[in-house]
Amino acid sequence: MASDMTTIPGIPADAEWTAISEDSPAEIEVFIALRSIERIPDKVVRAWIRYRYATPRSFGSKSVKELAAYNEYSCGERKYKILRSEAFFTEGTHEPDLSERQGYVLPGDAAYKYLCK
Predict the structure, then answer these.
(1) Helices in 19-104 by DSSP H: which ranges?
(2) Which pTM value belongs to this model?
(3) Residue 71 pLDDT > 50, yes or no?
(4) Could you tell me how far CA 84 lies from the centroid of its own chain?
(5) Which residues form the domain of 68?
C-alpha cells in the first residue's frame, strides 16, 4: 500500500491489511488489519480499518487520500464509535483526526459486515 502506516502508534507494525470492500469499482476501498481485531464481551469488536478514497476528500485546507481508524462496533446494537483515527493527505503528510464520531452503522458498512457476521 502507498502509505506507511507502521509509523502510527497503535497500528500493529506487522499489520496485514486485507481488502474487505464489496463494491467494484469502489469509491472507497476498505481494508482491515487482521491482527488488530479484538472481540470483547457483549458482542463488541474493535479493529483498525483503513479507507482509501478514489477521489480525495476535503479536510480543512487539505485533501485526504486515506484514513486509518480504530473503530469499535456494538454488533447487537448496530452502533459504531471511532476511538482513534489518522488522516493521510495527498501531499504526503498525516495527522490525527480528533473529531469524535459515533452513531448507527449504515447498511453498506463493509467493516461492520466483516466483523459482526
Answers:
(1) none
(2) 0.84
(3) yes
(4) 9
(5) 16-115
Written as nine digits, the cell of 70 is 480504530
> What's the mean pLDDT when you consider all of the chain?
86
User: Residue 85 domain-assigned?
Assistant: yes
Residue 2 lies inside a defined structural domain of this protein: no
Which H/E stretch holds residue 115?
helix 110-115
Q: Phi, psi at residue 113, to the nearest 5°?
A: -60, -40
Q: Is residue 59 part of a domain?
A: yes
State the total domains in the chain.
Answer: 1
48: burial class by Cβ within 10 Å (0-12, 13-18, 19+)?
A: buried
Q: Name the DSSP class of 106.
A: P
CB atoms within 10 A of CB 86: 22
Is residue 10, in this structure, part of any structural domain at all? Answer: no
